[in-house]
Amino acid sequence: MATKIYESIEMELQDGTIITVKPLNLKNLRQVMTKWREVETKTTEDEFLDLLLDCTSIAMKQFAPEISEKEKLEEALDLQSMYKILEVAADIKLNDPNLLTAAQELAGMN
């Protein structure tokens, strides 16, 4: 019997789509982490939100390719849903107030 060593959750998105989120495969994780490195260059909240959407879009290619386009994600997600997807999929924890503050400071938003 195999042992599952990762967290897997089911989420209902705002458009009613139900997805299963689990850690990304290495190919997609590399793409997310490469994109995430751009956080240091973001200077406005809109730029930071676009970065979050880009990272979430990469992750959604694995979970729900039919809604992975940025425009469709904007209809299907709220901010907390993006945070949870990135936390489970790429271990990027944005709901931690200390980490969120640090990320915003890096982006020059505080």
Pick out its properties.
single chain, 110 residues, mainly alpha, two-stranded antiparallel sheet, 5 helices, 2 strands, 54% helix, 7% strand, globular
Task: List segments where confidence is low: pLDDT < 50 over at least 5 consecutive residues.
Answer: none
Roughly how much helix do the residues carry, as a percent range?
Answer: 40-55%
- Topology as a string of helices (H) and strands (E): EEHHHHH
| Tally of structural domains | 1
Number of strands: 2
Q: Please give the oligomerization state of what you see.
A: single chain
Beta-strand proportion: 5-15%
Side-by-side strand order of the widest sheet: 1-2
CA radius of gyration: 14 Å
Summarize the structure.
By secondary structure, this protein is mainly alpha-helical. The chain contains five helices and two strands.
What does this structure look like?
The chain has 110 residues and is mainly α. The chain has one domain (26-106). 54% of the residues lie in helices and 7% in strands. It has five helices and two strands. Strands 1-2 form a two-stranded antiparallel sheet. Strand 1 (9-12) and strand 2 form a beta hairpin. It is globular and about 45 Å long. The protein starts with 8 loop residues before the first strand and ends with a helix. The model has no long low-confidence stretch (mean pLDDT 88).
